[in-house]
Please model this.
Amino acid sequence: MKRAAVVGAGLAGCEAAWQLARRGVPVDLIEMKPRLRTPAHESPLFAELVCSNSLKSNALTNASGLLKEEMRRVGSLIMQAADATRVPAGGALAVDRGLFARYVTDALAGCPSVRIVSEEVCSLPDAPAIIATGPLTSPALSDAIAALPGLERLYFFDAAAPIVTGESIDRTRAFEAARYDKGDGDYLNCPMTEAEYDAFIGELLCAETAPVHGFEEDRLYEGCMPVESIARRGRLALAYGPMRPVGLIDPRAGRRPFAVVQLRRENAEGTLWNLVGFQTRLRFGEQKRVFGMIPGLERAEFARYGVMHRNTYLHSPSILNERFEARGYRGLYFAGQITGVEGYLPSAASGLIAGISLARDMLALAQVVFPGCTALGALGRYVSSPNKDYQPMGIQYGLIDTPEPRIRNKRLRAERVAERSLETIENIRRALEEEIT
Model:
């Protein structure tokens, strides 16, 4: 059988390679690391989590949680790794990013059907192939993609939050708690009085930012908006955003603080902590100065400063079908954030769909299309439906078909959507597993 090429060993590429290999399709997984790295990459391992270590909500009443469960049931490698390396994070699924990347890397390196090729790809490979090079696709490959008739290249800016060492956090000022007690003190919380908040905002607004090539304020993606950009929207923008204190009581004061900065574990040992929602493009010295005003972080040691980078993605509605295959280019698929899906799990989910679909192409099997009543199907429909104003999008219940008759109660409606979705996924899973065995 001809070998399939998967270009890129991020979450989408690793998931795609896994889905091909477990169906008996030989795969070349082509990754330029460790020979070459982008400015956002630090590890030589596959499936590196560049920004946060959180994969968002695990609850079925949340679209992100539903997507996770669908992926688990269809045999996702990324979900196996996430569940095996999770760290406490209340109702969210967060992972030890080092152990997570190691799990995925070892699984693929140990798979007989997968051949690891360490090189940079500068031109489009011949089909069958899946391009999963992510939003940081190299300029040469980006140019090769854009040269195809009918393809259009767009971009937006993404940002990562700082990480501080656990031993440098002043625990006499920060307190352990999850919002509404959802978890066993899974977050560290740095409370602020109104005066402390106002002083912090004042310094944040006048802090010096690092230049980013081609930076445009209107190209910022809402889900990764830098903290200083949010602050410019108004005095209380952060207090109602990433610094909202709802669901938290400062045990020392006995009341809810005016604002709070939450820190989430980066690893199982709790030696590293991420500043939740504090993506930034401040200069490194300014990050240390301004974020050092946060109670409990006065002497914080930064294991990684926040950074911003430019991301590339396709105008997928004019290019891809619901299986992430390029229209008019049989056997050529795209997956991951380059398609405009936003977030770790949606990226991996697109790789799952593309991998299953390409495998069925190569095995001469009828295609399986995930319907719009599922989170997986809703993602495929979003990237392939006509939309001249196409923007990066994560999974949300608004993308999934609403059951009829419409249920007015939001939670009950979400429960019904999840119930119907998982019934559908279970039928698809049985059909797929029968063919694998």
